[in-house]
Each structure stands twice: as structure tokens, then as C-alpha cells.
Amino acid sequence: MIKLKLLDQLQEEGFAVLRGPFESGRQSPNSLGGMLTFSILLQLLMFVLTYVVAADSTYFPYADIVFVIHSMVTATLILLSIIYSFPKVYMSRQKTQYFIVILVSQNLFGLFSFTGALFFLGKELSINSPLLLTITTLIFGILIVIITVARFYLLLKKGDYRDGSKKGQLRSKFETTT
Q: Please, are residues 101 and 32 in contact by the beta-carbon 8 Å criterion?
């Protein structure tokens, strides 16, 4: 297995604050199983809203290819959501279940929103503009991810997510009021 030297420098204590949702039970396997069950309906609803309402009469290039690829991704995520909502499965594969929850949330609140917005803009813009807009927003999105990962790494290295840190106190205060 390939080890990254930068990650080897981090200690387990540096992640203590991030364990709060696991320890409180909000992100327990049972809770995540319920979220996956509910996400099935949400994904179907968002799929209909995105591809029936937003994609209707859009000038967005390659909308049919986006539809095919996104329908396969969504169908796979729905199938995995069904499988990992059963206790016998998720109790033995908790890490995989958590990963699937992350993918489902990115599909629901990221891909559907992004493609829906592009389809709506494709109704108003010329034929070449939506493609340029897509490329530009994807570049900005990649830059944001790179900056976020670098910032998170630096905060972990400084110890901002250890028990008793300012971020830990802020998160515990926020989590007790929600």
C-alpha cells in the first residue's frame, strides 16, 4: 500500500474533534442506514426535477450523454443505498456504508444542483456558452477542492482539531445547540 509521507506526520489525536458525530450516535451505522433509505426517494425526486423540468428544451450541449451517465450513477447509488440500508450488510461493512453516504450526498446536493443549474442556464444562453460555463465552473470547483484539502491538512497539522482546541470548543457548542 502506498503511504503518503505528509499523512504519516499526522497523529490520531489530531482528529479527536472530528469523531464527535460518531460518538454522539448521529452518524451511527443505524442512523446512516435510515438516511440511505430516505435518500432513495430524494434521488428519484431530484432526478425527475433535473432531467424532466430543468433539461426540458435546454440548449446545453451533450445533455443526452450527461443524462445517460448520470442515470447510471444514480441507479448504482440507489442500488447501493438499498443494499447498505440493511443491518446485516452495514454492520459488517461500516466504512463502505459511510463512503456510500458521502457519494449519495454529493450526488443529491452537488451533481443534481450543478447539472440542473447548467440546464436552466442552457435555456437562456447561446449554444457555445453553456459548455464554456461548465468548463469554467469545473476548474473553479477543482481549485476550491485543492485549496480546501490543503487548508484542512494545515489545520490538522497545527492541531486545530485536537480535544480542547478552539475549533473543538466551537464545534461542541454548535453541536449541543442543534
A: yes
